[in-house]
Write a structure and sequence with these properties.
The chain has 122 residues and is an alpha+beta fold. Helices cover 16% and strands 43% of the residues. The protein has one domain: Immunoglobulin-like.
């Protein structure tokens, strides 16, 4: 009887662990910014690092980027602004447990927060 209970407990425990890997949401994505120490057209350069701490892949990541401006050219496949939202990485995957970075230059940093994404767990 104890063996059966141990077996059932192990199965339940493993199902909770494996389910946790697919409980990823856009709010898991973090955006950090720091100055690089460089100047572009007399404006400080900022490095944006987007982290996907989840094991799932994030696709079509859109950030809120109200008022975003830069004097540093950013490839549209890296960041594409439409209104108050910015599509990151041309919608391409940011795989689990990885980061995606880009730089921009402006007098101060802008608030960049995840708004939407597609989450793909395998």
């Amino acid at each position: 009887m104890a063996t059966i209970l141990n077996f059932l407990s192990a199965i339940i425990f493993l199902s909770f662990i494996s389910r946790g890997y697919c409980q990823c949401v856009v709010q898991n994505v973090t955006v950090n910014q720091s100055q690089t120490g460089s100047q572009v057209q007399n404006k400080p350069e900022w490095k944006v690092t987007i982290s996907n701490p989840c094991r799932c892949t994030v696709l079509d990541l859109t950030l809120s980027c109200t008022g975003f401006q830069t004097v540093e050219k950013i490839d549209p496949s890296v960041l594409s602004k439409s209104g108050d939202n910015c599509l990151i990485n041309n919608g391409n995957p940011i795989v689990g447990l990885s980061t995606f970075s880009f730089n921009y230059a402006w007098d101060s940093s802008f608030s960049l927060t995840p708004v939407s994404a597609q989450i793909a767990c395998s």
